[in-house]
Structure to design on (226 residues):
């Protein structure tokens, strides 16, 4: 199993450009999440999904959109990138069927710089 | 609001010098407290889940414990390869699936 994969690994955007980050998991997990990690801020939840076709807002959703058209994929979109969106983005997934599945498994991250 | 505070922010230990990292939390209806390890340039790697006060879990040189207000990650006789940032997160009962993370403790173990 590859676990959770993210593409791309690095990206540099200019202010106002758009892009989509792709997250894929092969563990048949129902729940998927997008976080951003900034120095001194810890991991913060952007959006999440509790199943195919569903999405919900997290702690810092403004400026981002998401889609979950297939169970294994979760896409994060930036419609008009801003320098404040410079960050490292992590995707995670898990199931919530029983206690042993609460833990979330993370991808390797996408480092995004907006100039 | 659910909150997680980790201390210290950074810790330097000599190889073999045991110590503990702290994670204090406020959450309504704790469903789980999680410890992760994060190496530079990588995603967090799951270590432990603790569900109720009094619970303990061990893995190699690491031991995690939980009380009603805080969790400790004890590191016994650390080695340089234990150097990483250790993250604590809580899952409350009121917010489906949402983990609240602390800012982490950056551990450096020198030979």
């Amino acid at each position: 199993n590859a676990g959770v994969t993210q593409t791309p690994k690095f990206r540099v955007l200019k202010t106002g450009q758009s892009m989509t980050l792709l997250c894929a998991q092969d563990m048949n997990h129902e729940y998927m999440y997008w976080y951003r990690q900034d120095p001194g801020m810890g991991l913060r939840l952007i959006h999440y999904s509790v199943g195919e076709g569903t999405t919900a807002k997290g702690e810092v959703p403004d400026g981002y959109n998401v889609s979950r058209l297939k169970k294994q994929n979760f896409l994060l979109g930036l419609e008009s990138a801003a320098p404040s969106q410079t960050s490292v983005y992590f995707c995670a997934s898990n199931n919530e069927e029983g206690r042993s599945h609460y833990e979330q498994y993370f991808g390797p991250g996408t480092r995004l710089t907006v100039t | 609001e659910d909150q997680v505070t980790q201390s210290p922010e950074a810790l330097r230990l000599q190889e073999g010098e045991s110590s503990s990292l702290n994670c204090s939390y406020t959450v309504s209806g704790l469903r789980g407290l999680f410890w992760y390890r994060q190496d530079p340039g990588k995603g967090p790697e799951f270590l432990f889940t603790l569900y109720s006060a009094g619970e303990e879990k061990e893995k190699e040189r690491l031991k995690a414990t939980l009380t009603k207000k805080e969790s400790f990650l004890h590191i016994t006789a650390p080695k340089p390869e234990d150097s990483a940032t250790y993250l604590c997160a809580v899952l409350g009962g009121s917010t489906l699936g949402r983990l609240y993370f602390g800012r982490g403790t950056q551990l450096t173990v020198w030979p």
About this structure: Chain A touches chain B at residues 4, 31, 33, 40-45, 48, 50, 58-59, 90, 92, 94, 96, 99-100, 102-109 (CB under 8 Å). The first strand of chain A starts at residue 4 and ends at 7.
